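Two proteins were folded this term; both appear here.
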Amino acid sequence: MALRVLLMGASGVFGSRIARELAHDPRFALTLAGRQRSSLQRLRESLGDPSVQVAALDIGAVALPATIASLRPQLVIHAAGPFQQQDYRVAEACLACGSDYVDLADGRDFVSGIGRLDGQAKAAGRLLVSGASTVPAFSSAVVDALLPRFGVLESIEHAISPGNRTPRGDATVAAILGYCGRPVRLWRDGRWQHGHGWMLTRHQQFPFGLRWVGLCEVPDLELFPARYPGVQSVLFRAGLELRRLHFGTLAAAWLVRLGLVRDLARHAPRLRRLSEWFIDAGSDVGGMVVELSGRDAHGQPLRLRWSLSAAAGDGPQIPATPAVVLARKLADGELPLRGAMPCMGLFTLDEALAALAGFAIDTGLESITA
């Protein structure tokens, strides 16, 4: 029997990519869900799979649990962000109707807090997974893959930079703007410190060249110090390809830090439209780097840089892939875990890269000399 999958936020940047990966796969009976039925219908037609269904669904509606239950899902993939201001009502609705749950959240508190439902999930025999996205799912898979090379891992610094022509949604923009200029709790030099969102700016080496990046509030900052005991520093940065947009965002972050702007995220739709005035000024090439520092098994200094580059606008496939991998593993009976947890250790880097075969994505690994 095909696994009944309800994909929420299906017409969004990431949801539509997940839909394309699950459509035409006999392991799944896919239902596309979202607020705009017309958008869902257009997506369904573009998929060319007559078995795909659509359902109007609003995550803010009082009747949401009943609506989800009426669709009888066995797996709900929640891609309707931003998650920073959401609660766990979708996950709780899944528990109530006997469905597993996977979301694409990258909100630090949201992903880190999913464990509060662990007891209920285990009692119900269900799997609830939060953070099936670039962070912490993909980033932790990279660290896990490289960890055996280290006797002692001391520092994790990773960063992403999308190409300027990469499609961007209001939810993604709002998530970024929500922490710009605000205090960010950091594990640095073996103790908790504070930085500010989009600050601690530096030039970062990517496979396609140098780009500016600044501090971001992501689940890794909370989860990695506990997952990798002994690590002394964990930093995550992100940046925009165009200097004018990156430093414009930095200027806005300073306005927040100085108390001159209270809620930058509410301006997300307007600022997203403004950024698209410059859509042709950049490229469709983006990427990710993970830099690990420590000592090898012989006590010698070791620094590694794992990198990923995505061309042809395929960058959004990275955050979409973890949910696809988990759905396939659930359909194949290869994910027996039960409980509620952040998306770490549920798939390997090789499994993620195999799911990206056919996209314009390359990876590399190099030693960094001092």
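Next, the second protein.
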Amino acid sequence: MNHSIFVGIDVAKHHHDAYIFDSKTGEVITEHFKFNNDSGGFESLVTLINQFPNNSVLIGVEAT
């Protein structure tokens, strides 16, 4: 697979912190953003990720 869009997520109890960038161009797609640990928060994350082809996205999750 040739992933070029990286999504890094730092997991916490009430909200999560994330960052999205394009590894091919070095472009920061989204600066640091927070989303709630609920269905609305995850819907906002999915909306951001869905703008890219599925096979180009790699998501990394780090729990604190």
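The mean pLDDT is 92. The first strand starts at residue 5 and ends at 11. These notes refer to the second protein only.
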